[in-house]
Each structure stands twice: as structure tokens, then as C-alpha cells.
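Lab channel / #folding
Pinned by the channel admin:
"Please post every new chain as: sequence first, then the C-alpha cells as a reply. Keep commentary short and put observations after the output so the thread stays searchable."

First post following the new format, from NK:
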Amino acid sequence: MQDTQAVRPKLGERATLAQWYDVVRAESLRRAQPLSPEDQSVQSMPDASPTKWHLAHASWFFEAVVLQAHQPGYRVFDARWHHLFNSYYEALGPRHARAQRGVLSRPSLAAVLDYRAHVDAAMRQFIMQADATTWDAAAPLVTLGLHHEQQHQELMLTDILHAFWCNPLLPAYRPGAQPQPAAESGGVALQWIDVPGGPVAVGHSGKRVCL
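Reply from TO:
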């Protein structure tokens, strides 16, 4: 994952926030890139979500919370999607059941990507052109939306890894990937560490789990 900390802006620095927006949004697509359309539609358990849903939901946040609320004349991509891609924001209306996100064969992945492009174009224009009063109200929401999307980037990985684990073919997210040197450890290559099985203390609380 790219280091988004390096371009994280102070509120009000519009050009920097626009740059950070592009970096975060591109990272979501980068994480989805190794996956087929079929991969991105699967939901392996009620607590997981399809990759396609994550991509749409992160865009829904910017559309519903920033653009519809603060951009006069904004044209929604598809009003029906407001219901499909809301999650737990009850104040913003009803939502499709979480456990049923995997049945959404429509909209297609291609349509979801078009949705992201539509929202991105509107957000870039909004960030650079909103008047000062509007910007003061909306800038914290844009920043919140980027943190929100980064959270879903983590969920995209955990959810697809669970789906692949459930598949008898045991597909890999990145076939043939090799551990890379860790800069934090002075360039020492990452590797698995063998530990004995049995009860092991985990975390600061020392809770014991069985390996």
C-alpha cells in the first residue's frame, strides 16, 4: 500500500487534499486489480462483503455525505443505488441487508467502476471550486471519507482472503508473491517464524489461545 501519510493534508489545503483523494481512491482499485469480476461479487459469510460492494460503498459515502449535501445541482449517478450501498448510516435512509450483499449481481462491476469515475470527477471539481463557507463545512467530511475508504481497503483484503480460503481450489490473491525486504528492519527479508504449538499468550492482556 502506498504511504498516504506523506500527503495527508491540513484542512483547507485544497490542492494537497485533492492529491490525497486521488492516492486513496487509486489504492482501492489497485487492491481490486488482481481479482476477476466473479471474485469481486462473492460473499463468503454474512459478516463479509463483496469487493464490488466495498468499491461502490466508498463512493456512495462521498456522494451522499459530501456531494448531495454540499454541491448544489449535483446529479446522482443512480438514485436507486443509495439504498444498495448504504451500510449502517441509518440517518441517511434504509439499506440493503448486509448478509444479502452477495446477491447483487447487478449493478455490474463495470457499472460500479463507472460510478466511481462519476463521483471522482465531481469530487475533484468540488474540492477545488467550492466557496469558502461550503468548503469549511465539507473539508472535514472529505477527510473522514478518505479515512473511511482506507478502512474498507483493509476489509477488501480480509473479505476476499476469507472467500479464497473457502474455495476448494485455494486460489491466491497474488499468485507467486514473494516476501519483500522490510525497510523498517534495515532491509531484512520478511519470513515465517516457526513457533511451538500449544497455548500461547497473545496481546497485552496475555490471553492464552491454542495454536
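NK: The radius of gyration is 20 Å.
TO: also worth noting, Residues 12 and 132 are 9 Å apart (CA to CA).
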